[in-house]
Amino acid sequence: MLVRFISLKIQAFLVVLRAVLWLGAYHCSAETIIWTNLSGGEWGTKENWNPNQVPDAASHDAVITNDGKYIVVLDRSLQLANFTLGGVSGVQTLVNNNFYSLTLQGTGNVRTNGVLRWRGNLLGSGTLAVSGQFIWSGGASDPAAAICIETNGLLQVEATSFLYGALTNEGRVQWMNDAALDGRCCGFVVNQPNGVLELWNDQPAHGIFVNAGTIRKLAGMGVTQFGGTLTNTGTVDVRSGTISFGGGSATVFENGTRLVGTGTNQLGAGIITLNGEIYSENMVLAASTSFGVPALKGTNKIFGRWAWLNGYLGHDGPADVTLATNSVLILAGDGTHFLYGVLTNAGTVLWTNNGYLRLGNARFENSFDGLVEILNEPTLDGNGTAHNAGRIRKSGSVGTARVGVPFVNSGTVEVRDGSLDFDSALTNQPSGTLQGCGSLRLPSLSFINQGRISPGSGLGTLNVLGSLPQTVTAALDIELGGTNQGSYDRLAVTGAVEFPGTLNVRLANDFVPKLGDQFQIMTFASFSGDFACLNGLNLLGAARRLALVYGSNDLTLVVTNAAVGPQAPALRLTQDKDRLLLCWPTEYAGYRLLSATNITTALANWVESPLKASNQVVINPIEPERYFLLRKKE
After folding, report:
1. Residues 477 and 626 occupy one common structural domain
2. Distance between CA atoms of residues 540 and 561, nearest Å
3. pLDDT category, 319, cuts 50, 70, 90?
4. Count of domains forming the chain
5. Average pLDDT for 497-508
6. What percent of the chain has pLDDT over 90?
7. What local confidence, expressed as pLDDT, does residue 472 receive?
8. 450 vs 498: CA distance, rounded Å
């Protein structure tokens, strides 16, 4: 923000300076000398002027405005108070091919039909205002001089020129051939909201740049390095090659910045600040070969699409980066990505590399709308935490991805291919789901399952490498679509299983089990306890039910006979540490749970109990004694 403040102060100073110079020029008694030779000629021929004298003094105003098409050739260095180039019609051209200098004290106006072809220096404290064409083929501008390209005006830089003063653009500025506009000493470029700065090559940019308009790279398949100071609120449109930012004193992209085009906007080195809402089609955070590793900081929200190949989010100042809904971040490159601060994903993160995302006292948040697609075998580690409220999905690689920081899941973690290893604490909250047909490696001492486990991406087997301790709020979802392995869900646990929680069974693909069918839905090293709630075991209307058969190392569902005719559901009561869970099967719809503190209370006075779910209620054991009654809704 300091750079922006200084930039605004400089702009204000230049405006005041130009106004003072303009007023001063016209309060002095300048002598006006007018060009009269409509065939063109040399500046130094007095007969070409009226009166017949050559304008060549700080007190002279030179005027070349007669209509027609002609060329005036400069044949000397000169001083002027003011000059005007361009008539109502035709083309009036002033040419300097021999590096002569112009020392201007007031204002030089290049009007719409005027063309200034210049190879030389612009000296003095005056202002060159261009609404026609200014073609600059080398030389330098004085630190006190100002160049203003007005609406519809054109500055075309055809050979490297040195800007030591200020350039304000409301029209179009073009860097052509192998030319550069070099302002590394003290040049100051302000590209106004309607201004366009066109780069037709790969030459570097030096100086102080404030862009509220459009910077557009149109040619050159290489890299244009912005090595100075940039404050941007406008558009950077790269249609060819790359523009690489950083390596200078400061690069700041403010609210409203648009980084677009078929080329690449590279955040390549140094400290780069993003503030506010940023739109990107082609932003890449990646180290420049010449200037080292980039570090991005600031509080921002990024819309569109961008890639992070290496470097830092944060580090030399905090970063709070949010990827907006429907936006995409590509984590690529096999190096280490460092996060210092907060990265929040509400869009899609495509994690394509095998490298590291290393947290430095940082936090990764995958919000409710966020998707993290792990397409390879990366590692999330360091000092920090991760929280998933959306969806994290491992797919596309049969190898192993690792999470080495404390991880809290309140959304969905799905392993479609390979293995996802949790090496630190893992908490699956009541709203969280662990699912898939790959492998989950759980931490040995710091796993808490309060939520849902759902084997298969569709139907299939989920492998759990480690032990599976569960709380009473946990649930296991099993789908049965046939009797062959692969046509029904299965949970294979290499360690011990604790069984409080809920078993939910559902039929899939119009499958109807036959009497005697068996489904080995779990394997384990050992088990303890039993499920608190059982849903979907009663095959209503088929006179069959699914019975749980525990073996020493497995759990099997077996289809058995059930009583014919209407049946009432049974209540199950389970204690889990400091609470009780009362439930009944969900296949018995249309029931409500009533309670009273006295069993002799008239039925009309029993109170309906608030449910944890459609068929569950949690009871605090220290509450007064209560009686419960399950009753069909009328």
Report:
1. no
2. 11
3. very high
4. 3
5. 92
6. 71
7. 86
8. 12
Residue 115's pLDDT band, with cuts at 50, 70 and 90, is: very high
Range of the domain at 192: 1-212
Residue 156 and residue 70 in one domain = yes
- Domain match, 563 and 600 both: no
Tell me: the pLDDT tens digits for 433-455? 999 999 999 987 789 899 999 99
Confidence of residue 489 (pLDDT cuts 50, 70, 90): very high
Contacts of 293 (CB under 8 A, 6+ apart): 269, 287, 310, 311, 312
Whether residue 574 contacts residue 472, with contact meaning beta carbons closer than 8 Å, is answered with: yes
Q: What is the pTM of this model?
A: 0.88
Q: How many CA atoms lie within 13 A of 331 on its CB side?
A: 29
Residue 143 lies in a domain: yes
**In terms of domains, do 512 and 600 share one?**
no
Residue type, 292: G
Q: Is residue 4 part of a domain?
A: yes
Mean predicted confidence (pLDDT) in 478-497: 95
Q: Where are the alpha helices (DSSP H) in 384-459?
A: none
Regarding whether 553 and 579 lie in a shared domain, the answer is no
User: Looking at beta carbons, which pairs linking 454-461 to residues 24 or more positions away fall under 8 Å?
Assistant: 454/489, 455/489, 455/490, 455/491, 456/489, 457/414, 457/416, 459/486, 459/487, 459/488, 459/489, 459/508, 460/436, 460/486, 460/489, 460/490, 461/437, 461/485, 461/486, 461/489, 461/490, 461/491, 461/492
Are residues 503 and 476 part of one domain?
A: yes
| Unique residue bearing structure tokens 């949010």 | 322
